[in-house]
Specification:
Order of helices and strands: HEEEEEEEEEEHEEEEH
Structural class: alpha+beta
Strand content: 35-45%
Number of helices: 3
Largest sheet: 5 strands, mixed
Radius of gyration: 22 Å
Distance between the termini: 17 Å
Oligomer: single chain
Shape: globular
């Protein structure tokens, strides 16, 4: 019976049907240096400087404890299962040239919304609150006042939008930091390959035990 119990427990193993988002650069404006998009995987340490536009997974398949406010209005309701990503443009050494991170990020799951701060200081708390609720905590990101998108701006105005499962960003920087948080639907879980194999083994083993007892 102990062996059967071990097999049954193993049947509950699951794995995320997770695929990395796909990033694609678009042509930058004349006069700006390209800061190409790069997917970096799981965020595991405080964010640092880079001359690329970095995309990190923050949290996968978490349940919101409270409503999550989004930029542009709207909320994701408490109890919703989501995944979160952070896009950052934070250049090395504050160069004099303007750099541009312009491209698309495509996810397997629908995008629920974006969160970012702008030149309006009342938006700072929107970003910092999400650092704790769906991010990894303030220590990973820094002050919200340094992480805002230049909106509105007469030249080099930042932009971020989404449609379906595709996010389009157009970020400009030479000093300061541009951060955009992306919230997607949770990534479905499926039985891990090992669990599927164990299911067949477990079924055969239980059947063998029953036949043995019958005799």
């Amino acid at each position: 019976m102990k062996r059967a119990a071990i097999v049954v427990v193993a049947l509950f193993l699951t794995a995320s049907a997770y695929a990395s988002p796909t990033v694609a650069d678009l042509d930058p404006l004349t006069g700006a240096v390209r800061a190409p998009l790069s997917y970096m995987g799981q965020l595991a340490a405080p964010l640092g400087e880079a001359n690329t536009t970095q995309v990190f997974l923050e949290n996968e398949n978490i349940t919101l404890a409270s409503d999550l406010a989004l930029s542009g209005g709207g909320v994701v309701s408490a109890g919703t299962d989501v995944s979160s990503y952070i896009v950052r443009l934070d250049l090395i050494g504050r160069p004099s040239a303007v750099y541009q991170g312009y491209g698309t990020i495509t996810f397997d799951q629908p995008v629920l919304g974006l969160i970012y701060a702008t030149n309006n200081s009342s938006t700072y708390s929107l970003l910092t609150a999400s650092d704790d609720s769906v991010g990894l905590g303030a220590a990973y990101y820094g002050s919200a006042s340094a992480r805002k998108l230049e909106i509105p701006q007469s030249t080099w105005q930042d932009a971020a939008s989404f449609a379906g499962n595709v996010v389009t960003i157009n970020l400009f920087a030479n000093s300061g930091i541009d951060d955009v948080r992306i919230i997607t639907e949770a990534i479905p879980t499926v039985p891990a390959p090992g669990a599927v194999v164990l299911l067949g083994i477990g079924t055969s083993f239980v059947g063998w035990l029953r036949r043995r007892r019958a005799f």
